[in-house]
Amino acid sequence: MTDSNRPAVLLIASVPDALIQRLNATYTLYKLYEQTEPLAFLAQTGHEIQAVVTRGDVGVSDAVLENLSNVGMIAVFGVGTDAINLDYTRQKNIRISITSGVLTNDVADMALGLMLSGARNLCSGDRFVREQQWLKQAPSLGVQVSGKKLGIVGMGNIGQAIARRAAAFDMDIAYVSRTEKTDLPWRAVTSVNALAEQSDFLVIAASGGASTRHLIDANVIAAMPEHAWLINVARGSLVDEQALITALQNKQIAGAALDVFAEEPQVPEALLALDNVVLQPHVGSATHETRQRMGDVVFANLDAFFHQRPLPNGL
Ligand code: 8YV
């Protein structure tokens, strides 16, 4: 039941229970994903909504926003804003907050974990032991990670956190960045193709969205050495997934370790069928500690919005 003293907040997709409980205790919380007739719900209740909470991977569509005539803020549980039309929100003066800062380390950890899992056969090694193959044959050899050439696509907070970790593995680190970075100890390369050509491991840590869609296309993949691995902890949209599948099928590159996909949670059958891939269900930021902090950041930004204070994590 609506408590008219409490501001109305619309939750677009499920977030951790602890955050839902906090939102419920403070606001009139509507869950769009639980509505059996979402369009009818929006038409009837949309005008009440003052703030939206959504996930980075889900965002919020223009079609939903068009029903929210009094919305002033979108609090993103995540850092990606690629699933939100920022031209539209700017035009409507809708403010945006993200969970900046708190998930950087986890996503960087995941990138290193994926790189090691792929190159050192951790997933297939696990299956090998469970299936008692060890009793019958010797395990296969992996590829060394330490000392190799790492190319990072996107040198924001996450890219830099990956580089710092890779430095401890004595890796030779180069990167491409959309903005010039003058203060970094790693080598800047001007094109993604050139970076791909010279990398043993190519890690994607750039933002998603229209401007980076299929940045890693068939040409970039063709530039990668045959022994190279592609690692993606950013967004599936950055990679031409079909071109990647073809390259993996033809052993044009050694493998891919992916936390993100073009049409999550759908993963193409052709990718599932390959054994030179490591696949994760978009869990770069999915630790207890980080998800708790992300919830805290979402809550703090909503609180600031409703008390007319500047958003601590506003865009
Ligand atoms: C989260 C993300 O997995 O930060 C982002 O943009 O995609 C991820 O950290 C997501 O927002 C929560 O589901």
Largest sheet composition: 7 strands, parallel
Work out the count of structural domains.
2
Bound molecules: 2-keto-D-gluconic acid
DSSP helix count?
12
Order of helices and strands: EHEHEHEHEHHEHEEHEHEHEHEH
Please identify the structural class as seen in this structure.
alpha/beta
Could you explain the architecture of this structure?
It comes from Candidatus Pantoea multigeneris. β4, α4 and β5 form a beta-alpha-beta unit. This protein folds into 2 domains: 112 residues, 3-Layer(aba) Sandwich (Rossmann fold), CATH 3.40.50; 176 residues, Rossmann fold (3-Layer(aba) Sandwich), CATH 3.40.50.720. It is built from 12 helices and 12 strands. The protein has 315 residues and is of the alpha/beta class. The model has no long low-confidence stretch (mean pLDDT 97). 2-keto-D-gluconic acid binds next to loops.
List keywords for this structure.
34% helix; Rossmann fold; seven-stranded parallel beta sheet; alpha/beta; binds 2-keto-D-gluconic acid; D-isomer_2_OHA_DH_cat_dom; oxidoreductase; 12 strands; five-stranded parallel beta sheet; single chain; 315 residues
